[in-house]
Amino acid sequence: KRGAEKITVAEPCNKLPRPAPSLPTEPALYSGPFPFYRRPSELGCFSLDAQRQYHGDARALRYYSPPPTTGQSPNFDLRDGYPDHYQTRDEEVQERLDHLLHWLLEHRGQLEGGPSWLAGAIVTWRGHLTKLLTTPYERQEGWQLAACRFQGTLYLSEVETPAARVQRLNRPPLLRELMYMGYKFEQYMCADKPGGSPDPSGEVNTNVAFCSVLRSRLGNHPLLFSGEVDCTDPQAPSTQPPTCYVELKTSKEMHSPGQWKSFYRHKLLKWWAQSFLLGVPNVVAGFRNPEGFVCSLKTFPTMEMFEYVRNDRDGWNPSVCMNFCAAFLSFAQNTVVQDDPRLVYLFSWEPGGPVTVSEQRDALHAFLPTWYVEAMTQ
Ligand code: A3P
Ligand code: MG
Ligand code: MG
């Protein structure tokens, strides 16, 4: 006898309720080596026009056109045109995955790897993955992701949390203006044609968007996702998307080492997560002064962002972000077992806690539109 009798195998006990599965989010649990992430390749693109109408082409793509580096420093008035020249998207409209599904429906026959590749893939927005990447470090905003399986594919679609809705409906006027300023910066930095000059006189319309659709893989999770792209650089070393794309950002001008440190810890994490996922090599930041003018620009190569926090005990780590995301995708894959577009699992997370999940069988939570399900069932 080698003590085998001491081993007690837990008998399945039908009388006790199973503890609800959950996923912890502490950074220390995800600090292993960086997982495999396939270099994202662009499968296609689409555009949304000033009326938020879908077009299966690149008409909304703009061209990076920074001011000459030889001249004086820039002096972009980001408040110019506010509020008269501001047209905002109707945020009451929950678009969910609709535009991406529109693209997918039109291109499902041409996907590399065929329909069997799609059956094993996860379909979502890049922005949803960005939230997953930053979760181990996020201390302010929670999230909810709805998930369902249909013809093998796992679809993930964000649901606005009640707290986020309250915040949106009570958005202070100054925050609304700050959002305008982010878009206004794009107008100063982009032209409508390659080699053209920016025209900052027009409207800022947040309905307009150019979206790239990409294929990648995180660990053993094939991914098909779409993300909004600010512009393409006609002078980029490679004209092949996504490596020609440029992400534009604004941030407050910084004056002390403490301000820079905080910028590296918090803002650079979000910038990195967003651009790394899509394979955007550079983020161009415009720093605005208290009067709302951008007087300096700085390019942050995505692959160099981690260097700013590598030796910071309170910094972020790309491996933690990617390992957590991979763990969440496995958690979702193992939870959403039944193939049924009407059966939705709602994954919820609030800072300080684990990711929890609940089953939603009501029509309210179903997010794959009938037109998509029916066309795919033909
Ligand atoms: P900044 O980039 O200067 O923050 P993006 O940078 O992702 O291309 O988004 C463009 C602009 O949209 C942002 O400018 C900001 O003004 C606004 N925006 C995007 N996401 C936002 C969010 N979660 N909350 C508030 N504003 C947001
Ligand atoms: Mg953008
Ligand atoms: Mg931007």
Which properties best describe this structure?
single chain, 378 residues, alpha+beta, ten-stranded mixed β-sheet, five-stranded mixed β-sheet, 19 strands, 26% helix, 26% strand, globular, binds adenosine-3'-5'-diphosphate, binds magnesium ion
Could you explain how this protein is built, in words?
There is one protein chain. The chain has 378 residues and is an alpha+beta fold. Helices cover 26% and strands 26% of the residues. It is built from eight helices and 19 strands. The protein has helices spanning 98-107, 114-119, 126-134, 162-169, 173-189, 257-278, 318-335, 370-377, and strands at 22-23, 41-48, 54-55, 63-64, 76-77, 86-87, 122-125, 143-150, 153-159, 190-191, 204-205, 209-218, 221-228, 231-232, 245-252, 282-288, 293-301, 344-349, 355-360. The strands form four sheets. Strands 1-19-18-8-9-7-13-12-2-3 form a ten-stranded mixed sheet, sandwiched between helices. Strands 5-17-16-15-14 form a five-stranded mixed sheet. Strands 4-10 form a two-stranded antiparallel ribbon. β18 (344-349) and β19 (355-360) form a beta hairpin. α3 (126-134) packs across α6 (257-278). The radius of gyration is 22 Å and the shape is globular. It starts with 21 loop residues before the first strand and ends with a helix. The structure holds adenosine-3'-5'-diphosphate and magnesium ion (MG) (2 copies). The site of one magnesium ion has 4 residues, from β15.
